[in-house]
Amino acid sequence: MKTLLIKGSLALILLQFSYFSHGQTVTQQLTPEQIAERVAYVHGGDYVSGNPTLVSAWGKVMTDRIEYQVVNQDPDEKYPLLSSMPLMTKSNAAVQGADFANFNVNTFNPLTYNLDFFSDRTFVYRIDTTPYIMIVKPIQHN
Length: 142
Description:
Helix content: 25-40%
Order of helices and strands: HEHHHEEE
Number of domains: 1
Radius of gyration: 19 Å
Strand order of the largest sheet: 1-2-4-3
Largest sheet: 4 strands, antiparallel
Distance between the termini: 61 Å
Number of helices: 4
Structural class: alpha+beta
Number of strands: 4
């Protein structure tokens, strides 16, 4: 009886874990230093030091307006693959896109992609071979 109770409890815990991981939405929690590093990687250090307001705006994009959601890939899904988007290489020709085989939401820099981050529309991208989609929410006008 005790073994059955333990197995049942374990099954409920595993079921709850799988429920929370599928469809879970996460955002990046970044420090001001991490934001500055990500902006500098794409736009350069001079951009960061000369444009604190723009760096703050990029920080809000990364922490408030981009969500990552665990969604099983569907063979019929219409989301464009992130790898099909151009890289933002205007200021730094050495910019590299994500390593999808080792993708980690916490270390990912979405600014490396030349996406419309300041649109009034929502955009959704499949992060290639990962279970994630990236949702870029529209900018809110006051």
